[in-house]
Specification:
30% of the residues lie in helices and 27% in strands. The protein has helices spanning 2-8, 111-117, 146-157, 159-192, and strands at 10-13, 17-22, 26-32, 41-45, 50-58, 63-72, 83-87, 90-96. Residues 8-112 form the SHSP domain.
């Protein structure tokens, strides 16, 4: 029967005042919710990168005030590092920006990164000079047959791309495992932290 009482309440929807603060390393969305309490607010991030913000509070015995906002998180934000904090009647949603990947300069990066960034370039086949046949003999100039040259080239260069590909696959698997672990740690930490909503 308590559920019927909830349906009898009138809901007044409103659009809270929102301010964006854009910085070099992060963006902050400030939402003014003066008469709300932290327990009356909810901030969620969907798997599709949509930030859902909503809240509901009683106005009197028969009315409630509520709002709902959805914000698509841009690809230049680090979704796993988004935080929300409610303080002094304002909800602050901090969205750190992703750091751009900087390629190593002239061998100054890690050896593994330098190896994965390089694409194999085929070495040009060495031309053997054909000296004119000696006038007195029927000796043929020594040249390498095209089939032999191709197999020699594949023998040298064919293994390198496969080895690089294997190294990239191992590095990618390790990265996925590390990201999964950090997401697990993040979710368990967020559940314990009382100051943060998301």
């Amino acid at each position: 029967m308590a559920g019927k009482g909830d349906h009898a309440l009138a809901h007044e929807e409103f659009e809270p005042l929102c301010k964006w603060q854009h910085g070099e390393d992060l963006d902050v969305l400030e939402i003014h919710l003066q008469e709300f309490k932290k327990e009356q607010l909810k901030v969620q991030l969907s798997n599709h990168g949509v930030l859902k913000i909503y809240g509901e509070r009683p106005l009197d015995a028969s009315r409630k005030s509520k709002f709902y906002k959805e914000i698509q998180i841009s690809s230049n934000h680090d979704a796993s590092a988004i935080r929300a904090k409610f303080a002094n009647g304002c909800l602050y949603i901090t969205m750190p920006k992703r750091k751009p990947a900087i390629p190593p300069k002239n061998g100054n990066g890690s050896a593994e990164a330098a190896k994965t960034d390089q694409t194999p370039t085929p070495e040009p086949a060495k031309e053997q000079s054909q000296a004119p046949a000696p006038s007195g003999g029927g000796a043929k100039p020594q040249t390498q047959a095209p089939a032999e040259a191709a197999s020699e080239f594949q023998g040298r260069a064919g293994k390198a791309p496969c080895l690089r590909l294997a190294k990239v696959a191992v590095a990618l698997a390790a990265t996925v495992a590390a990201v999964s672990y950090f997401v697990y740690l993040y979710k368990s930490r967020v559940a314990e932290d009382d100051d943060w909503i998301i």
